[in-house]
Amino acid sequence: TVRAPQCSWLSNGRVCFSAVFPLSCAVQNYAWGKVGLDSEVAKLIVSGDPLAVVDSDEPYAELWMGAHPKGDALIKDNRISQRTLGQWIADNPGSLGSKVKDTFQGQLPFLFKVLSVRLALSIQAHPNKELAARLHAQFPDHYPDNNHKPEMAIALTPFEGLCGFRPVEEIVSFLKSVPEFHALVGNEAAEELQSSVGDPGRVSEALKKCFTRMMNCEKKVFVDQLNMLVKRVLEDAAAGKDTSGSNGDLLLRLHSQFPGDIGCFSIYFLNRVTLEPGEAMFLGASEPHAYLYGDCIECMACSDNTVRAGLTPKYIDVNTLCEMLHYSPAPASSKIFSCVQDPSDPCVFLYDPPVPDFSVMRIQIPGAAKQYTLAPVDSAGILLVVQGEATASSAAALSDVALRRGSVLFVSANESVALHLGSPGGMLLFRACCLL
Questions:
Q1: Is 180 annotated as a binding residue?
Q2: 56, part of any domain
Q3: Residue-wise pLDDT tens for the chain (436 aa)?
Q4: For residue 417, what is the domain's CATH number?
Q5: In the annotation, is 308 catalytic?
Q6: Which residue range(s) make up the domain with 220?
Q7: Residue 429 covered by a domain
Q8: End of a domain among 205, 232, 266?
Q9: 289 known member of a binding site
Q10: Is 126 marked as binding a ligand?
Q11: Active-site choice (202, 213, 272, 308)
């Protein structure tokens, strides 16, 4: 079906434009990504575009769905004059929705991603808006954006990460059972942490002291201690002894990926969190974290700012990280971010974090359904098909769009899209938007 462009009221007057169209999105081949078709990113690319070629030796780490300058999505419709999504939004800012347009100065406020993680990402945190602006002004090469970067990860496969500081009792237990870890923290800081249990104010202060002492430890000292620890864990494992008291399996894995890296000791401070498909983690400003393995949907404020301090060959800024972190111990279970089923649509599960920049909907359409309507929201959105096939039609599209696994669709604010399902297995979709 081919239609004439529809007319809509936008901020610059009455104009005609296609408000729903498919996108071709940027791929980031970072070294930590899963390789070739082991990567969910690569699988989605091939499924979405039968002409795409995947290099079996190349890592496919991230699919960027948005308008960030480092990876602005291309518009897959040559009848639209603008080449990229960023250019199109700049010419049609009303497509963002009036509240979003005004709040975020005519910019798409979020960046939507798929990640496929093979090697651990860096021990990191993201700055709040004030710190982001200051870091960007002082060190623009290392901090390319002046925006904050809260983010949320939703597991597509079992997904493993480190997130937030462990309960203080667990950290104290590791200080007792892992002498090499204790050596880096030091007797004074370790005793201070142990004596602070039960007093939240003192815990935070003591935890900061312990973590900062470790992260600033002289390199020769921590490398020697790490080598001793790895040797001991390997010997214990070979003798059939239980190494869980030293978090042995994860220690050996991280050391094999980043030998001699101080970040290997972070496992004694940070929670190890495993998400099942559909479960999520929200990472606000100053929350220490690292992704370890798996595939996930990720949504974040439109920024590329990261403060790193270990498990990375990239720029490390230990002092900034240690000063900015929230030293708030909490159990791993508290890091699971819950979604809520939409009371008006049983197919929609909403992940709505406590930031204005983004929300994500998981849309699970049952196999028996022949048709489904994506309800309009007062925000531009990006839709990713993870499973199933459909034909998408909208009064705001130039023509119907064939959707399959890997397809990405931009939907302007307040536009509805009818999906005519083409496969009996139902569909799984993720939709990023901004629900102010």
A1: no
A2: no
A3: 444 444 443 444 334 468 999 999 999 999 999 999 999 999 999 999 988 999 999 999 999 999 999 999 999 998 899 999 999 999 999 999 999 999 999 999 999 999 999 999 999 998 888 888 888 888 888 887 777 788 999 999 999 999 999 999 999 999 999 999 999 999 999 999 999 998 988 999 999 999 999 999 999 999 999 999 999 999 999 999 999 999 999 999 999 999 999 999 999 999 999 999 999 999 988 999 999 999 999 999 887 778 888 888 888 889 999 999 999 999 999 999 999 999 999 999 999 999 999 999 999 999 889 999 999 999 999 999 999 999 999 988 888 999 999 999 999 999 999 999 987 889 999 999 999 8
A4: 2.60.120.10
A5: yes
A6: 167-266
A7: yes
A8: 266
A9: yes
A10: yes
A11: 308
- Whether 415 maps to a domain, the answer reads yes
Residue 322 lies in a domain: no
Give the domain-ending residue among 266, 291, 315: 266
Q: Report the number of distinct structural domains present in the chain.
A: 2
The CATH number given to whatever domain includes residue 192 is: 1.10.441.10
Is 205 among the annotated ligand-binding positions? no
**SS3 sequence, the chain?**
CECCCEEEEECCEEEEECCEEEEECEEECCCCEEEHHHCHHHHHHHHHCCCCCCCCCCEECEEEECCCCCCCCEECCCCCCCCEHHHHHHHCHHHHCHHHHHHCCCCCCEEEEEEEECCCCCEEECCCHHHHHHHHHHCCCCCCCCCCCCEEEEECCCEEEEEEECCHHHHHHHHHHCHHHHHHHCHHHHHHHHHHCCCHHHHHHHHHHHHHHHHCCCHHHHHHHHHHHHHHHHHHHHCCCCCHHHCHHHHHHHHHHCCCCHHHHHHHCEEEEEECCCCEEEECCCCCEEEEEEEEEEEEECCCCCEEEECCCCCCCHHHHHHHCCCCCCCHHHHEECCEECCCCCCEEEECCCCCCCEEEEEEECCCCCEEEECCCCCCEEEEEEECCEEEECCCCCECEEECCCCEEEECCCCCEEEEECCCCCEEEEEEECCC
